[in-house]
Amino acid sequence: MGAYADEYSRSTTDPEGFWAEQARAIDWHAPPSTVLDGARAPLYRWFPDGELNTCVNAVDRHVAAGRGDQPAVIHDSAITGEVHTLTYAQLQERVAKFAGVLAGLGVAKGDRVVIYLPMITEAVVAMLACARIGAVHSVVFGGFAAPELAARLDDAQPAVIVTASCGLEGDKVLPYLPIVHAAVDAAAAKPGAVVVWQRPRLTAELGPLDHDWAAAERAAAPADPVPVAATDPLYILYTSGTTGKPKGVVRDNGGHAVALTYSMRAIYDAGPGEVWWTASDVGWVVGHSYIVYAPLLIGATTVVYEGKPVGTPDAGAFWRVIERHGVRNLFTAPTALRAIRKEDPDAEFVAASDISSLRTLFMAGERLDPDTYEWAAAKLGVPVIDHWWQTETGWPIAANLRGVEPMPVKPGSATVPVPGYGVRIVDDAGRDVPAGTEGAVVISLPLPPGTLPTLWGADQRYIDSYLTTFPGNYLTGDGGYLDEDGYLFVMGRTDDVINVAGHRLSTGALEAAIAGHPAVAECAVIGVADQLKGQLPRALVALKAGGDWDADAVRAEIVQLVRDTVGAVAALKEVAIVAALPKTRSGKILRRSMRAIAEGRDEAVPSTIENPDVLDDLRGVLRG
Length: 624
Ligand code: COA
Ligand code: AMP
Prior knowledge:
By secondary structure, this protein is α/β, with parallel strands linked by helices. The protein is built from 19 helices and 31 strands. Strand 19, helix 14 (370-380) and strand 20 form a beta-alpha-beta unit. Helix 3 (54-67) packs across helix 5, helix 4 packs across helix 8 (213-219) and helix 6 (146-156) packs across helix 7 (177-186). 53% of the residues are buried. The chain binds coenzyme A and adenosine monophosphate (AMP). Coenzyme A binds next to strand 9 and helix 12. Residues 142-143, 167, 169, 174, 280-281, 284, 286, 308-310, 333, 335-336, 339, 364-365, 501-503, 568-569, 571 line the site of coenzyme A.
């Protein structure tokens, strides 16, 4: 038996023994005596009687072990050109002080704190400070507009919001505080305070709720870590579902620390003291797990990069960061490589930098198309490793386990199921399909530690959305197949979630925004293939009869409306005005048929369509 097969088999035949062993890598305040609690199945809990503190595991214990002078966080901004480093000892001091600020504002164990910050060191400090006092953070991506932030405030009901004066996107300075104030005004749940980090590029004028971060930090007494139950929530991260209402994915403390620590060794082959860089954003799960928690849990140095792969300054930015900091492992999304390749197809910028420290490039967030894979593998000269996971799981479901048994790469495949994950491909009746046959990708319960125990305040929604379609299994929402060698090929979402530049978006949320325009009778948003961003949202809109609408003006207003309601990250630029949308006899809009028409698969349009006369118009719009 190979090392992978052996490890995988141990994780499935004796999951409790396997995870008890992995749990030894964590410092526990009270070690767990029970590993898995299935009393409330299908809701499972890992390490139910364990107690720990995630911040202690990510920071304090490394200082105690002599890593105090090692860089913990390197902030590198391509936009300001500045680099700032915090050692583990400095990180401990800042986190303890900021935890003191939060405690001084009345934040206690179990209270929620919403973090709306750009890619600055303070984002890491704020997250860890929450963990230190047992508060539950909910980081909201900076590209979301005020109404999306307000929806999250209403669901999470935070005691405090932590923000900055501005974000920097290329040469744009984006003021954050007006967005936060608008969200607070719109939300029913009002926080008690807003803490604002003033950035040199923009000094925000503070209102009655607002506190200046730096002044508060100077005045605060450091807060000691508070032990929490392994099953207590560490964070809530909202992600897009099929409806417009975001789902609050809950992450616990114990399972999370154990799983991420295991992943760094087994999947990434990464160790303490190494420089690790995930080029993503703390607002996404990739940022939570692999910018902040996982590298710090193992005592590595994490690079927090502010900027895009191209533009400011140029398509060589990534390679210079690798050279400057001696980055050993880079993790990013395929769209970033496609953007670089477009600007620098011959990889002249790669040749101009010394990237000899780089050992492996990890890719996730969207499908790694074979073309981009081939380009990166050839130009970088290191293994390019695709792996597949999602916000809900928090760490990889399928990967090429570099620390267990590196396997040959098959372009287009995320490789094999990670130990702990019982990956199955099933047909509509829930039966396993033969190798090579596409079906729904599901994971048999229980999911391993680190994955979502539930949705925030919504156990039943969790059960209904994920655990009911195929009882005993978790529905991933992705379709795919396993080949004869057990390699998993993930082909894309089977629901109405789209993936734009590695950003997960709900077509339902975009449709809800568009429906707010007075001219719109009905609308649908579908994802269409895009060479750079993987997918782009495209809106199809039928206007109300009898109105004297100016089509160009309506299109422009809809683009602006989506920007103001969902945010710039929605990247909605294409709005087509059509006579009507295709529907079933019961009046349901046939989104799948529209996607099929856009892809030239007209045969997939059901013959039972209620209004076939709209199809010619749609073909013209979607393929024209
Ligand atoms: N705060 C405010 N606005 C933001 C933002 C943020 N944190 N992130 C993105 N935006 C804005 C952008 O400025 C842009 O605005 P614009 O329409 O005024 O130009 C809009 O949202 C769309 O952004 P994006 O989709 O990122 O497109 P882009 O053209 O600016 O950049 C890429 C394209 C491919 C270079 C970029 O998306 C990228 O680097 N992607 C990697 C994604 C990633 O790391 N995903 C995480 C999963 S691993
Ligand atoms: P998110 O929750 O934002 O991480 O998005 C998760 C979704 O992104 C998954 O359900 C997939 O549809 C897609 N995805 C992420 N990584 C990959 C990958 N390596 N290959 C294919 N799709 C991926």
